[in-house]
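Late entry, pyridoxal-5'-phosphate complex.
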Amino acid sequence: MRGISKRQFLRSVGGIVGASAMLSFASLENAFAQASTIAPDRLARDNDFWQSLRKRFTPSSDFIQLENGYYSLAADPVLDAYVGHVRRINGLSSFYMRGRQTDDMLSVRKELARLLGCADTEVIVTRNTTESLDTVIAGFDWKPDDEAVMAEQDYGSMLDMFKLQARRHGMRNRVVSLPLHPRSDDEIVELYGNAITPKTRLLMVCHMVNITGQILPVRKIVDMAHQRGVPVMVDGAHTFGQLDFRVGDLDCDYYGSSLHKWLGAPLGVGLLYVRRERIKALWQLFGDAGFADDDIRKLNHSGTRPVATDLAIIDAIRFHETIGIERKSTRLRYLQRYWTDQVRGVKRIVLNTPEQAPRSCAIANVGIDGVAPAELARVLIDKYRIFNVAIDSAGVRGVRITPQLFTTNAELDALVKALQEVAAAAT
Ligand SMILES: Cc1ncc(COP(=O)(O)O)c(C=O)c1O
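Prediction complete; structure with ligand written out below:
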């Protein structure tokens, strides 16, 4: 572990990690240390290697799980450590809450800040992206003439929160529509730029669009918006733990993510980053007048919370860093290309995800001409045991397919065969 010894790590989370979790971490670290000389793109194609990683996960054997974008199961060592946290905190109960809790939470924030590349005074642990981004949207001091810019392909809860601000404060939302297959970054930057007016006070952009998996040129959008004096909030629900970046690379003002998606933390944890200078102007959603206006912890008072889950973030980071973000990202993109390359160009099959490699990673969306998305999703699960999600909104008609590190090529072969058969049968 970078910057913190194993002993310190154990102490920092209260010596909670059980012996079995420690053992599985150690053997995993060993396996990845042995692979350290292999280049990530070569390792990405080594199915035997990744098959051995699958043994660290316990997905259901009832179906093929290709809907890992909603929530992705934690690996067994993380789960074991998490259960250890639950047991110990349950035993200590309020003694823990009144004692170690504050220091432990600071350790968690420090670890997240290290991974994100920001100061620990700029990040808090939330329950999920919804809580993180809605805290920002509703924390603005909106005035009737103000405007915000967003895309119709953004996530529903954030769009709804902006609509609520419009109803409540009389501000106005300008909604752009993203092309499924952009010709260039400039086309997207221009789209957002055209929606900015002198009244714009906030621009929201997805780092990765959840319904298609399209990665947007966030840094270029941020640069353009900043030149016009507009702060940018990035929806990073799908990118923290999936893509290799630091928040400084994006230069955004606010960033939110869910750690139960790609970091592999147990269900119900997220993060919110707010650039230091932007903290003061945000109003908190929950009552807390105990912190200075420029202290990010003012935004974090959600009452008594399941701290065992927060602690497991450290275990998830350890698992994540053992694999390494470059190896992880490369394998995830390989898995997506493995199946999309086989169906691209097949009669009636329509890919709703850009073809250029840097514009997507794990997630892709596929439709079949003449088959409604809900029907395709139903056939895939009922006939082929492939779990997926139908998308039929904002100009996107298809099913979203999201592999994870434990997904095998055989599972993706089953998907390809299923899509080919459904397409061949469509009239
Ligand atoms: C782009 C995007 N933003 C926000 C969210 C909300 O995440 P959560 O439900 O973890 O708050 C999601 C969930 O899938 C998403 O895909």
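The first helix runs from residue 6 to 12. Will revisit in the morning.
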